Amino acid sequence: MTAISAIEAITDRIRERSRPTRETYLGRLDEAIGKGVNRSVLSCGNLAHGFAACAPRDKAALAGDQIANLGIITSYNDMLSAHQPFETFPALIKQAASEAGGVAQVAGGVPAMCDGVTQGRPGMELSLFSRDVIAMAAAIGLSHDMFDAAVYLGVCDKIVPGLVIGALTFGHLPAVFIPAGPMTTGLPNDEKARIRQLYAEGKVGRAELLEAESKSYHGPGTCTFYGTANSNQMLMEIMGLHLPGASFVNPGTPLREALTREAAKRALAITALGNDFRPAGRMIDERSFVNGVVGLHATGGSTNHTIHLIAMAAAAGIALTWQDISDLSDNVPLLARVYPNGLADVNHFHAAGGMGFLIRELLDAGLLHEDVETVWGPGLRPYTVEAKLAADGSVLREAAPAVSGDEKVLAPFPKAFQPSGGLKVLEGNLGRAIIKTSAVKPERRIIEAPAMVFDGQDELNAAFKAGELDRDFVAVVRFQGPKANGMPELHRLTTVLGVVQDRGYKVALVTDGRMSGASGKIPAAIHVTPEAIEGGMIGRIRNGDVVRVDSETGRLEVLVDAAELAARPAPRPDLSHNGYGMGRELFAGFRALAARADLGAGAFGAAA
User: Fold this and answer.
1) Are strands 385-389 and 395-399 parallel, antiparallel or unpaired?
2) Apex CA 472: angle with CA 547 and CA 460, to 5°?
3) Which residues of 87-119 are buried (b: 16+ CB within 10 A; e: fewer)?
């Protein structure tokens, strides 16, 4: 079977599997669309509350049902570099809406937390569930039923997936996502990683570490490595929720402002009041999600999306699975080398040809569904462009460059870096897990070594400081799943395990937790399902048991007799300390309701 036919077959099976839930979802969507512009049926008291703070012109416009009203859902705060630029966006959007003959209102704000700030801290245990809170907050903002379309201002890790879930829950409304763009290039990512390892080894102090980190994260915009935040931006463009060429334009530039204005006007142009109605829930379908997964593999994107994409798809009644993601990986080559899968950052990727070049290469190879709908119009081919600033301050689009500006960063299809995307499902007597191999050297993709068992990353870090890790071993870090403690990222382990690996030892990680979207060179079987607290076999591994992590054949096993393993009592650690402090008390319900990682780890199910 060719790659093209394989992708068609995978899409068909997703469509068939999803048919019952998708049909229910679309039926509800059509029912909502059939109600028309709902401001017209609001009582006078309802409507007066809805536009009480508006200018007289906007009040007059919103009193009827002929002028489109654009809802703005924003994740602005000025602590996070990626979201700080959104401070000025509502004013730009309102002005652009007025120029287009419409109105825009800030419908609501959603929280935006930064995993980079909370790594290794109690606050990280709120991170995954913040996605569901964001979806719920977006729903509250839109529940006033005042809007004909919505724009979503978000960038980072859980924010965009949460906003997509919210947008698809309100799928009867058109939705345009507006990014803020990456910060300019700072300290090279490999140099940052080098300083982190020196600090972990005690060879440099905190002052040197903070200086390096501050030179890396130095201004407004998204962090420049290719983690979950920038994977989000790639996804929004290749799935047709961004305008063409919008993802990786730096904040604070005239082009970024022009793209924001254009996005607002485009959102108003695709409401039910015009002749190009594009409700998000119909526009985004199984083909859109397959395109997103293909883009994830072609760019070596974040492992977090093996959870988020499943939850996002479920919001539209689409049943996407880990096996679908893994099988697509087998048929999509890696075309980008961006840190941690290379030395370049996203600015280098964008300069080499960026999304326009990537989408064209994948389309020409037949690996993307070209016949999808997007916010820009029919078909994905219009996204094979580069956005520039025209003389009059508007957006000018030109064909993406025919040749990559740097083939070490962005390769043409015939010169792919490797034949597969590098995300794979592992299965065995420990359950199922995800592994990302695009940054793992081939000789490290099969690790068989004795287990060292830890009930948290602090225990592992203490063992490292005590000099106990200078050996071949598989680190088993358990009770880190969604039900145990909210499934925090274990990014702090990357540096420690990297140091041990660089000393010449065979090292791997097996965990029911998550790793950062920036994780790379350590073979890591993550998201192990079932998790330890639900009786998963990862909880029954003992120190010294031989564990095999084989990303070549897709096996994850502890080499212990099945009867002996089953007879071992499941450990029952005291996890009460995960239930309080830093707001964790408020998330007990989320932990209790959380689905398994391979079902999206959400606290609520599909909208259908």
Assistant:
1) antiparallel
2) 85
3) eebbebbbebbbebebbbbbbbbbebbbbbebb
Could you list the residues known to form a binding site, using ranges: 156, 223
Nearest Cα neighbor of 439 from 565, 341, 329 is: 341
**CA dist., res. 37 & res. 596, Å (int):** 38
Backbone angles phi, psi at 198, to 5 degrees: -60, -40
Cβ neighbour number for residue 272 with a 10 Å cutoff: 17
Distance CA 4, CA 315 (A): 27
User: pLDDT tens digit string along 55-112?
Assistant: 888 777 777 778 899 999 999 999 999 999 999 999 999 999 999 999 999 999 999 9
Q: Which of 519, 582, 255 is nearest to 398 (CA)?
A: 255
CA atoms within 13 A on the CB side of 485: 29
* Structural domains of the chain in order of their starting residue, each with its CATH number: 3-35+68-182+223-399 (no CATH), 185-218 (no CATH), 423-573 (3.50.30.80)
Instruction: Name the band, by pLDDT with cuts 50, 70 and 90, for residue 608.
Output: very low
For helices 228-238 and 286-299, what crossing angle results, to 10°? Answer: 140
Report the binding-site residues for [4Fe-4S] cluster: 156, 223
